[in-house]
Amino acid sequence: MSAEPGTVRPGGRTARVRTAVLRAAGDVLAEQGFDRLDLAEVARRAEVGKTTVYRRWGTVTALVADLLADMAEQSLPRTRTGAVRDDLRANALLVQRTLADPRQGALFRAVIAAAACDPRTAEALRHFYAVRIAEWAPCVSEGVARGELPVGTDPATVVRAVSAPLYYGLLTTGTAPDPAAAERAADAAVAAAQAGVYAAPVTPVTPT
């Protein structure tokens, strides 16, 4: 069974071609948006043959999916400070720096806009965030184990609660969050978690 275009992880020269093409695709997305992303233009910027790009990825959506997969793979590992509040502040500040970066912030806005109308881009974006949430969720699990958060707290929901206000602010105001906003988002998520907002309800035991 042949692999879907853009899903093979080769080495050598082919890996260098992939790196150059994904970099060029990210540049076009950041500068012009999803609707202006063109495989021929990406090939020109990457200085590779159009045939190579069309044969390897085939469609714009396949290229964006591979770009998001690569971004997930290249993302920084989670921070481990020994305290859940500090861990989640580190997560929030990482998101904040990404969204404040001129290229990365524009790239994410373009991909999020594309995901609203393109199913494959939406799936690739969900996969990207699933990878990142899985990377940071152990911060919450470890916080539960240390007694900082209630038993039953859902790690993935807490991690989403940290970054959600930052993305919302970017998309609704067009302005990237600052570090203070990132710390507030983390502190609010921790406070809610400590209050049991993200903990599964305990089922009472009925005496027999």
Automatic annotation (TrEMBL):
Q: Which molecular-function annotations from GO does this UniProt entry contain? A: DNA-binding transcription factor activity; transcription cis-regulatory region binding
Q: Which domain of life is it from?
A: Bacteria
The residues that make up the annotated DNA-binding region are 38-57
Q: Which UniProt keywords apply?
A: DNA-binding, Transcription, Transcription regulation
Q: Which InterPro entries match?
A: Homeodomain-like_sf, HTH-type_TetR-like_transc_reg, HTH_TetR, Tet_transcr_reg_TetR-rel_C_sf, TetR_C
Domain called HTH tetR-type: residue spans? 15-75
Q: Does the keyword Iron-sulfur apply?
A: no
Recorded hits in Gene3D superfamilies, A to Z, give: Homeodomain-like (1.10.10.60), Tetracycline Repressor, domain 2 (1.10.357.10)
Q: Which Pfam families match?
A: TetR_C_11, TetR_N
Protein name (record): TetR-family transcriptional regulator
Tell me the organism. Answer: Streptomyces sviceus (strain ATCC 29083 / DSM 924 / JCM 4929 / NBRC 13980 / NCIMB 11184 / NRRL 5439 / UC 5370)
Q: What is the lineage of its organism?
A: Bacteria, Bacillati, Actinomycetota, Actinomycetes, Kitasatosporales
